[in-house]
Task: structure prediction
Amino acid sequence: MTETILGLLRHGQTDWNIDFRLQGITDIPLNETGIAQARDAAAVIDPDDWDLILTSPLSRARATAEIVAEVNGFADAEVEPMLLERSFGEAEGMSHQEWLAKYADTNSVPGGESLRDLEARANLLLDQLAMKFRGRRILAVSHGALIRILLRIVSNGEFPREGERLGNASMSVFAHDGSIWRIRSYEPRTLHSDLL
Result:
């Protein structure tokens, strides 16, 4: 049976990334470094490995996807609402340290999406992608919190490793064999030609 392949590419850097601020669903654009990271990732990505590009509706992911699509000769990226980042509610814009200091239980921030809710959405996303794109190769641009939870689900908690950050424009690849998803490759570092 033909596998369904899912490459999850994290968007490039934004100004809030530099300060380790919670971006969530706040629409923060790529900065110059983020644009360069998207171009570097696009240069490493082999267009023959992918059939289509999906993207979160947020501009930082869409801009990354559009750069990858343009460099590699793809049609425009298709927006997939389920690739949206986790909402951090009233904590959006706070630094990670401010968030932890103000909210002892980071799962219950007013207006935020709990990790349990995010996991339910991530499982639904995996199911939908496996059914809708069976046997296809999908490159999807999304966000750190969502990608982290998808990695945890599919790897049974093995990835990401304790304390490991996912770099902007990093990409891991999943495969679905018709019954389950598994990790095909895990790469938390920013894609760059030096990794080849």
Notes: The chain is about 35% helix and 15% strand. Strands lie at 4-10, 52-55, 78-79, 137-142, 171-176, 181-185. The CA atoms of residues 102 and 183 lie 35 Å apart.
